[in-house]
Amino acid sequence: MPYFERKPFVSALRTATKAVPEQDTLPISQIARGILNAENSTTQQLDGPFHCRKPCRPGETGTILLSFAAPAGADVVDLQFEPGDMISRDGNVLPTDKMSIQPSAVRIPPGQAVDVAVSLTIHDLAEPGQYQGRVYTKGSENTAIVVIFEVVAD
Q1: Structure pTM?
Q2: In Å, what is the CA distance from 153 to each residue of 54, 83, 105, 111, 128?
Q3: C-alpha 65 chain-centroid distance
């Protein structure tokens, strides 16, 4: 009597279908944190996103000009601006220290408008791609402004 019985080999492997990459590459914890912050805060988001019209190369600076207005007959609007990191779809980051906002705070009288320049300096080793981030306003109005900069190969 043999110790084993010989049988024909049958593969248990099945043909796998190719996985389609997800559109959103952010970690789920960051997505959840963003949703909770949006639900728990009074921050509103302006229509946008706002694009830099000119693609930037490493070493260059791109600028988006935003205009803020206070309605006639309303109170004076005080705003302070804070930049956020710029992140590409591939997960590459342009940190906040590369973004400047001039002026960093504004006081807008009723019926008046003020222009604010959002500038991003692209560091020399930046990967090409579309970088998206937010500029936050604090003060009379809490708002998140989505900005997009396109980085092209040198």
Answers
A1: 0.67
A2: 13, 24, 34, 43, 6
A3: 17
